[in-house]
Q: What sequence folds into this?
């Protein structure tokens, strides 16, 4: 989350599937002139969006680690089966 006046851009998506992008500009204006409530609301929104981003990154990391573990187990089992087949073939000859 950053001020909308800062220069920013997103590179073109070249991946497979859909890219989901959520963006918006938020302007808070106080009718009474009291800025305290606006500051609190801005802080709350910032914290909420930050926590959402952290949760999203955590879930992504968890899925990545799960995939890595699955691939490691698959490779390990493949190696075990290969060694067992090799032992059986050597015993038969």
A:
């Amino acid at each position: 989350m950053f001020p909308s006046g800062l220069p920013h851009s997103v590179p073109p998506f070249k991946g497979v599937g859909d890219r989901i992008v959520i963006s918006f500009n938020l302007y808070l204006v106080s009718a009474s002139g009291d800025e305290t409530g606006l500051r609190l609301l801005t802080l709350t929104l910032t914290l909420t969006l930050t926590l959402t981003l952290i949760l999203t990154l955590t879930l992504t990391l968890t899925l990545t680690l799960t995939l890595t573990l699955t691939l490691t187990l698959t490779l390990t089992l493949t190696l075990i089966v290969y060694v067992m087949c090799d032992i059986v073939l050597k015993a038969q000859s």
User: Anything to note?
Assistant: The two ends are 68 Å apart (CA to CA). Residues 28-93 form one domain. The CA atoms of residues 1 and 7 lie 13 Å apart.
